[in-house]
Automatic annotation (TrEMBL):
Gene Ontology terms: cellular component: cytoplasm
Pfam families linked: HemN_C, Radical_SAM
Family: Belongs to the anaerobic coproporphyrinogen-III oxidase family.
Protein name (record): Oxygen-independent coproporphyrinogen III oxidase
Record's compositionally biased regions (Polar residues): 1-17
InterPro entries according to UniProt: Aldolase_TIM, Coprogen_oxidase_HemN, Coproporphyrinogen-III_oxidase, Elp3/MiaA/NifB-like_rSAM, HemN_C, rSAM, rSAM_sf
Keyword annotations: 4Fe-4S, Cytoplasm, Iron, Iron-sulfur, Metal-binding, Oxidoreductase, Porphyrin biosynthesis, S-adenosyl-L-methionine
Associated pathway: Porphyrin-containing compound metabolism; protoporphyrin-IX biosynthesis; protoporphyrinogen-IX from coproporphyrinogen-III (AdoMet route): step 1/1
Organism field: Pandoraea eparura
An annotated Gene Ontology molecular function: 4 iron, 4 sulfur cluster binding
Chain spans, region Disordered: 1-25
High-level lineage: Bacteria, Pseudomonadati, Pseudomonadota, Betaproteobacteria, Burkholderiales
Length: 513
């Protein structure tokens, strides 16, 4: 294995700080050192932390390089990922984690999963139940009431809810009365703020939630909205079984702004049938004209062996080079329009809380992607919902039958999870910082986890040699920085620090590109 030589460029007052090394300048100070001599090379003055508060340089699109690193890998919305969850994690493990959280008294984040949809989108890989019969919702809502009360009892009633997200499925499959009853129950067990200082978001389908519904949701306290758009091209919409005219989305957006929603997110997907850079550019132009505060532009993962509805898509998917051209069009157009590329598939306007959190170093990832409120434990309720409480992850039963049976038995609906050990917590910290900030300073990691980074991660630093040689990363005496060429491959960099990656589980993940 090629060893990685950890280097440092001269300090800012030296005569030349721009000389490239491996195709890009390295950060840091002091002279070049080997890994063995790294500790002696540390400058006595603390280096300026790497940050992304400034505009990121353009991302180069090297098709051959990206194709070579287009391996299967997790999205790292958690670490360990859900692939490592196991059924031996039980109610006693969760109760222990909840007691740990209760002692802190810190604010909470709540995820509410509503699995129902009245129509199926052929691309979808979410845990969902497709039905036209809305009467099914009432039995589900009743179980949610019970689960919310039991979670509050474990975690401590009266704790502040700093963040809430309703996802699915389609949360607006529920009637407004059912949504209101759940919000009332949540506010009875937890403290919901009234001044919009908290972030309360809900995903909506504009085909089933018109302006009147949007106004009602705002009156219930929701202040962020996520709208599924995917693509405005009629041919693409027909192919994916989601016909949704632009005018419908515009009406929803206008309603959200008129009644005071402080942020709106659009979900888009690239890699769908019949998409071309030219056709998707038209969708992007329409989106830019509407100016949502946030955008999630997901790469379509075609896994028909796992998700049978994907087999209904026509055989007209963009190939690898075409998909890369789509991504290049997305980044180029949105960046030119002033959006900040947060990372992977997220974009935000510079004044949005997501961009501000990244600039402040407080951004993190959860099961909804990039998010704020990193200091909150996440409580998941509903079928298949995942939470992160204390030093554990826990997931509910993934079928309606098993979820109902567990709640009706008087407990929670936990089906599996994982309790983190010290190594998991350390690696979660490392991977989260890389995914959120495209950089990593060794010193804070060492202080928080009482390790010597170079000694602990000697193997991983050695494995970074090939990535460094290809200009994806730069490593010096103080930290690791993902270079512009590596930003699209941040999952590949993160995988280096994943101790579970050598198993066969990662083969079930989608390709990183």
């Amino acid at each position: 294995m090629t060893s990685l030589r950890l280097t440092s460029t001269p300090c800012a007052n030296a005569s030349d700080t721009s000389k490239p090394r491996n195709g890009a300048p390295c950060p840091g100070c002091a002279s070049c050192v080997s890994a063995e001599g790294l500790r002696q090379s540390r400058c006595s003055a603390s280096p300026a932390p790497h940050n992304t508060a400034h505009a990121a340089p353009p991302i180069p699109f090297d098709a051959q390089l990206l194709a070579r690193y287009d391996v299967s890998g997790p999205r790292y919305t958690s670490y360990p990922t859900a692939l490592q969850f196991h059924e031996n994690f039980d109610a006693s493990d969760y109760a222990r984690a909840a007691a740990q959280s209760k002692r802190t008294g810190k604010p909470l984040s709540l995820y509410v999963h509503v699995p129902f949809c009245d129509t199926v989108c052929f691309y979808c890989a979410c845990t969902k139940i497709v039905t036209h019969n809305r009467a099914h919702a009432q039995a589900y809502v009743e179980r949610l009431h019970s689960e919310i009360a039991r979670q509050a009892s474990l975690l401590g009633a009266g704790r502040t809810l700093a963040q809430m997200h309703w996802g699915g499925g389609t949360p607006t499959f529920l009637s407004l009365e059912q949504i209101a009853s759940l919000v009332e129950a949540i506010s009875r067990h937890f403290v919901m703020t009234l001044d919009d200082s908290a972030e309360y978001a809900i995903e909506i389908d504009p085909r089933s939630a018109g302006p009147a519904s949007i106004r009602a949701l705002r009156a219930l306290g929701f202040n962020r909205l996520s709208i599924g758009v995917q693509d405005f091209d009629p041919r693409v919409q027909t192919a994916i079984h989601r016909v949704q005219p632009r005018a419908l989305v515009e009406a929803t957006l206008d309603a959200a702004r008129s009644c005071g929603f402080r942020s709106v997110n659009f979900d888009l997907i690239y890699g769908l049938p019949y998409q071309t850079p030219e056709s998707f550019a038209n969708t992007l132009d329409a989106v830019i004209e509407m100016a949502p505060e946030r955008l999630s532009v997901f790469s379509y993962a075609h896994l028909p062996q796992q998700f049978k509805m994907q087999r209904c898509l026509p055989d007209a998917l963009p190939d690898g080079p075409q998909k890369l051209a789509l991504l290049q069009t997305i980044i180029t157009r949105l960046s030119a329009a002033g959006y900040v590329h947060i990372g992977m598939d997220h974009f935000a306007r510079p004044d949005d809380e997501l961009a501000r959190a990244q600039a402040a170093g407080t951004l993190y990832r959860n099961f909804q992607g990039y998010s704020t409120r990193a200091d909150c434990d996440l409580v998941g309720v509903g079928m298949s919902a995942i939470g992160r409480v204390g030093d554990s992850y826990a997931q509910n039963a993934k079928t309606l039958k098993s979820y109902y049976a567990a709640i009706d038995a008087g407990g929670l609906a936990l089906a599996r999870g994982v309790r983190l050990d010290a190594d998991d917590r350390l690696r979660r910290d490392v991977i989260s910082r890389l995914m959120c900030h495209m950089s990593l300073d060794f010193a804070p990691i060492e202080a928080a986890h009482e390790i010597d980074f170079v000694t602990y991660f000697a193997r991983e630093l050695g494995e970074l040699a090939e990535l460094a040689a290809d200009g994806l990363v730069a490593v010096d005496a103080h930290g690791l920085r993902i270079l512009p060429a590596g930003r699209l491959l941040v999952r590949v960099v993160a995988q280096v620090f994943d101790r579970y990656r050598r198993g066969d589980a990662h083969s079930r993940c989608a390709k990183v590109m």
